[in-house]
Design a protein that fits this description.
The chain folds into 2 domains: 6-132, Rossmann fold (3-Layer(aba) Sandwich); 135-228, Thrombin, subunit H (Beta Barrel). Helices cover 32% and strands 31% of the residues. The protein has helices spanning 14-26, 37-46, 63-72, 90-99, 111-132, 217-228; strands at 6-10, 30-33, 51-55, 81-85, 103-106, 134-136, 140-147, 150-162, 165-169, 179-184, 193-202, 207-213. The strands form 2 sheets. A 6-stranded antiparallel barrel has the order 7-8-9-12-11-10. α2 (37-46) runs parallel beside α3 (63-72). The longest helix has 22 residues, at 111-132. The protein is elongated, with a radius of gyration of 21 Å.
């Protein structure tokens, strides 16, 4: 299934909002528009988006505060954020970049400028989505670590796996901060993975969260094939344009 980005659109001008929505949809993405400030503030902290267009001329909400909220949110902190403004003043642009905007787009703009910007951000959107994406899967995982001079070899079961780590159940379990090695065989590709990791969180119960470390390019691609169906380098985004 092709990746279809979900892009937040906050634009007060009806004509520019229509241009944003139609261009985003034309390029194979979903545009999400919301009018109420409190709804927008809540959604950036509870829903996952792949990018955002924020109107810095907006009177209904504080665009600077919204950008800060996006950057502080758990699910959207790393997404590309485009600042839309009728004030092409360098000081104003710097203020936007300072709070976390990624791009500056001066009004008025046309569909060509939007298409170029969307294509420029496609790699970042896909990578951000893949970092966020997790697959719920029950796999046998062998975990090895050392406690003093004693080597531990404990088999556990995965709860979910991402391209950056794994949440699993195991007893006994290593403590937070301990370096481990994990081995498991994902159903695709059919190659056993032996990865370095670190315990970042334990509990509740016998849960343990691991973050993968020092992945090779081949290991990263194998994880992406398992989690997303294909490696980032071979995926197409915005085929229309």
């Amino acid at each position: 299934m092709a990746f279809r980005p979900k892009i937040l659109v906050v634009e007060e001008d009806p004509e520019l909002q229509h241009l944003l929505v139609t261009t985003i949809q034309h390029m194979g993405a979903d545009a999400c528009c919301f009018e109420e400030p409190e709804t927008v503030k809540s959604l950036v902290e509870t829903e996952k988006f792949d990018g955002a267009f924020v109107d810095w001329d907006c009177h209904k909400l504080d665009p600077e505060e919204l950008t800060v909220r996006i950057r502080k949110s758990k699910s959207n902190a790393g997404i590309p954020v485009a600042m839309l403004s009728t004030r092409p003043d360098q000081i104003d642009a710097v203020r936007g970049f300072k709070v976390g905007t990624t791009f500056f787009l001066a009004k008025p703009f046309g569909s060509r400028e939007l298409e170029h910007l969307l294509n420029a951000t496609r790699g970042a959107m896909l990578q951000e989505r893949r970092l966020y994406q997790r697959v719920a899967v029950n796999l046998s995982i062998l975990c090895e670590w050392k406690e003093g001079r004693i080597s531990k070899h404990i088999a556990g079961r995965s709860i979910n796996i991402s391209t950056t780590g794994v949440l699993m159940k195991m007893t006994p379990r290593p403590e937070a901060g301990v370096a481990v090695t994990v081995e498991f065989a994902p159903p695709r590709p059919q190659t056993k993975l032996a990865l370095k990791a670190m315990v970042v969180r334990t509990g509740p119960g016998d849960n343990v969260a691991l973050r993968f470390l020092q992945l090779t390019k081949d290991q990263q691609e194998q994880l992406e094939i398992f989690i997303c169906g294909s490696p980032t380098s071979s995926s197409a985004l915005f085929p229309v344009g």
